[in-house]
Write a structure and sequence with these properties.
The complex is a heterodimer of chains A (about 425) and B (about 270). Chain A is about 25% helix and about 35% strand. Chain A is built from eight helices and 19 strands. Chain A has a six-stranded mixed sheet, sandwiched between helices. In chain A, helix 3 crosses helix 4, helix 3 packs across helix 5 and helix 4 crosses helix 5. The longest helix of chain A is centred in the N-terminal third of the chain and has 21 residues. Chain B is built from twelve helices and one strand; from the N terminus they run E-H-H-H-H-H-H-H-H-H-H-H-H. Chain B has one domain. Chain B is an all-alpha fold. The chains are: A alpha/beta (about 425), B mainly alpha (about 270). Strand 4 of chain A pairs antiparallel with strand 1 of chain B, so a sheet runs across the interface.
Amino acid sequence: MSDTIIKVDDLSKRYFVGHQSKRDPYSALRDVIAREAANFFRKTIDIVRGRQVVQGDEIEEFWALKDVSFEVKQGEVVGIIGRNGAGKSTLLKILSRITEPTTGRVELKGRVASLLEVGTGFHPELTGRENIYLNGAILGMKQSEIRKKFDEIITFAEVERFLDTPVKRYSSGMYVRLAFAVAAHLEPEILLVDEVLAVGDASFQEKCLGKIKHVAAGGRTVLFVSHNMSAVLQLTQRAILLSQGRVEFVGAPSEVVEQYIQGGRIRDATTFDVRTAKRDYEGTDAVRILSLRFDRAIPRFGFLEPIHYIIRIRASRTVDRIRAGMTVFARDGSPLGNGFSREIHGMVAGEERELALTLASIGLAPGSYFCGVSVGAGSHRTSNVDYDVVLNTLFFEVLPEMTTSGTMAEWHQTWGSISFPELAIEPIPTRS
Amino acid sequence: MTESTIIEPGRQERYYWAELRRYHELFLVLARRDLSVRYKQTVIGTMWAWIRPLLTMVVFTIIFGRVAGLPSDGSVPYALMVFAGMLPWTFFSSGLAEASGSLVNNANLISKVYFPRLIVPLATIVVAFVDFLISFFILLGLLVWYQFLPGWQILFLPLFLILAVFASIGPSLWVTALNLRYRDFRYIIPFIVQFGLYVSPVGFSSNVIDEKWRLIYSLNPMVGVIDGFRWCIFGDNSKLHMPGLLASIGVVLFFLWFGIRQFRSMEKGFADLI
């Protein structure tokens, strides 16, 4: 019977946000004085009352967390997911005792180590060796502990050659490897990890995931905040969905992730407004793309699900034919593939229209992608003309494949971005 | 046996001082970091620790000793008296200046890692103390140069050293916590330090102060520290003014208590304000 190791009761955290009131371009001196005097009096009263002094004309209350409650048992690995601004990092900060809650209570049984950032406290002037001891001490390891694990840490980081050079000379990859190597050798009872896997190249991320898996397997309790659904599904046994500071859903990782993507459909679609955006490639501009949007608010697609999106275009000149084209890019910017639609009848000058486009399932692997979209005439097979090209748009995510038994298929980052159809295999009969 | 940690708004760490002891290694690591970083960047770094007080001594001797014609303590050479006063003063002022910015400079730690925040300003005071020790050896050199042998009073020097440390810690903690919230202090501190240099008996001996002003003058905590220092080194040449000394000690202890109290009460909000 494992007992509760983290107990969170009605946790709330409030911040004050200042707003600048609208400044008239021709404001009278009288108005300026009145506004500054009002600000000055408010700030003075805040100082006297011991409250926080906030810059701005109007102050708004912002609850980063509101009435958050949950329990974590010993040895559990729990994922915390949510959109940006949901309160995930604030929750970890409070659990790490870096900031105080406004109301509520937390009880933690055991030594806590927090990985809120990779390379905390690294000083650029100190060497790699010195920084290992510094960073380890900051993370809570004893100097004797660090000395014992020193060789392991260097081997994990693969920086033996540069151990005695100041860290400011390291490449960003080496820096991040060294930082994670130290953190990876922590042995706390409770480990809080905040999206530190967002940095580094694919093989490094593999290493990090592997290490966290190892820590979890060792019976430690891990609280893991991430945007990487694949990692959450791989590592965690339970997940918590936070939305605008509140706990929206707690349950099995697959269910919570599903809830996360569903959550968007009800609200308005996220639109990429490129009406006035600068173009990297100039087309003939006969037809211009005004905006692009997916068919859902949260751009997350299931494995093998076709990608639907809608573009709104306006013609400045009459054109006979229109076709759309799109290129899909992996997260690191490398292009994965390109495709064109068939040609449809054109538009009259001044006409505005919406086109629905679908990219059939091509086996995109779980991960993050973005697109470049064009409208024009022709294709790579016939003479190609681009009316307008928009790059760095339509960011979306593909979720991992779910097996029939409800578990989630693993995808290694080193396998690339396309999941090929099943290979045909035939044993060749041996001659006897 | 694992201890339970409870996080609640307004809860004072019951085991704050025990926690400080648990983090003593981090304290040493931070102090070592500040020291090695300072001396890594420059060639002249170590020298600066004693060039500054030596040069100030020369200037003060000329201005206060020759031009103004102020008397020295007993038969002590003016330059020596000034240097002996410069030591605790430099320790106090550099401790105050470094500590007041220490929290802001370590913002990346404060916003990402938990540890008793008291460690950060205390670590900077250690750095100031190392500078003090270096200058102290120069002082010993000067004593040899002027062929001056200290009396039995020198045995009390460690006590006044502790007083100097306390005098540094108190105001430093208070100002550090205030500076985090109201960054104006970044500009106020250098001014206070400059002002203090002339109000404290660094360039002159306390004996030139009129009797009727002596007590109020002694409310400056550094008066007791510097006078005490001089008494330890120069013996009966530097007479100790007991009421003044006690007033100074009282102010030092008050600021020590007040500084720690203010720091601890503001500590919980540091990560939000930094």
